[in-house]
Amino acid sequence: MPALDYESSVRLRLLNFPLIIGVVYIHAYGTSISFAGATLGVEQLDYLTDFIRILISQGIARLSVPLFFLISGYLFLSGTRWSMQVYGRKLAARVRTLLVPFLFWTVLGVAIRYLGQTIPAVKDYFVGSGPLVADYSPFTLVNAVLGLTSMPEAYHFWFIRDLMLLMVLSPLLIFILERFALPFLAAVFLAWIMVEWPLAVPDAVGVLFFSAGCYLAMKEISLFALDRYGRWFFLLYIPILLADVIWYDKPFNMCLHRCGIVIGIVAVLSATKLILGYGWLKDGIVWLSGASFFVYAAHEPLLGLFRTVAFQVVPFDRPYAMLLTYLMLPLALIAFLVALHSLLSVYAARLLAIVTGGR
Predict the structure, then answer these.
(1) C-alpha span between 289 and 349 (Å, rounded)
(2) Rounded to whole angstroms, how far apart are CA atoms 258 and 261?
């Protein structure tokens, strides 16, 4: 399986930071928060706010996770001749790049919640509907770190959990893909769009797109093989996206939504070629991509804390106050984390390398 060429490598790097922005906006979707026995924020929204919020968080941003799984599967096999020795080396490498950061951030998440719950002045920010961390059973504590049967405490790390599991299971996936690729991918695709997946871990989206990425690498098919049709996929994606927003809460919409994701992925992959022609834009996005994992890892619980504070002080009775809060608060947090990443890269480079897996 040939290694990724330079242009393709740059194009994939161009995706990292924008996709992480999408992840942050997915987690910023809610407009009300339970806090200290009260509900903060706004539950009844004006049409424009609701439309833009769904368009971004439940529409465009929903391309992020499938794309990350697709790229991860492709890179896992690209440039290698598969063998059990290669499998062992790849898993060993992922200890540093995935397992160590996963354990660091999930343990940190539990520790932050525990400390927050012991400080009266901030306790309300860290007490949810579940038990206190101090009351966790041994299994609950391990489950909070590893996410064995539910989300880990740092809930956004479910992606890394599933990705690591899929890599461990990759010999089985490769065996299936070598013999029954199309029936297998079709069956998982149908389970995904019909929301009929029987497993809690790994999720259908991970199995489908990681496997698809592996299959493309096995067949030496570029992720950008459909570039010539990118314009048409984009023109098809736009009306599907708008219909997805308009019919967001309809019971039949999930099928349309997830089919739209597949079309949108091709459009986004193709769009990266256009950015190559703008050197300043390409260089800026590539530079920002260096902070992508740190922004992903650190945006929670900060986003939740920022939103809780904002929902207490923003006058939501003013026109479009919620819309502006929804749009600006994630961007402010992302800018803060990029700046923090830059500082850490100068003053704590070794620690930063450990907690981001050397990225």
Answers:
(1) 16
(2) 5
Closest C-alpha among 159, 187, 146 to residue 292: 159
The answer on pLDDT for 1 being more than 60 is no
Residue with tokens 């062992």: 88
Cis peptide before 198 (omega within 30 of 0): no
Report pLDDT digits (tens) over 136-168.
899 999 999 999 988 999 999 999 999 999 999
Helix (H, G, I), strand (E, B) or coil at 39: strand
What is each CA distance from 159 to 29, 138, 190, 215, 310, in whole angstroms? 18, 24, 21, 20, 28
> Which one-letter DSSP state was computed for residue 247?
T
DSSP string, 295-344: HHHHHHHHHHHHHHHHHHHS-TTSTTHHHHHHHHHHHHHHHHHHHHHHHH
Amino acid at site 29: Y
For residue 57, being part of any structural domain is answered with yes
pLDDT in tens, 268-282: 999 999 999 888 999
Q: With respect to residue 1, please indicate whether it lies within any of the assigned structural domains.
A: no
Token couple for 265: 């992925």
Q: For the chain, how many structural domains are there in total?
A: 1
Q: Tell me, what amino acid is at 114?
A: Y
Quick check: is 219 in a domain?
A: yes
In sequence order, what are the beta bridge partners of 33? 40
Q: Is residue 215 part of a domain?
A: yes
Name, in order, each residue with C-beta under 8 angstroms of 184's C-beta and a sequence gap of 6 or more: 176, 177, 211
Domain limits for position 177: 6-355
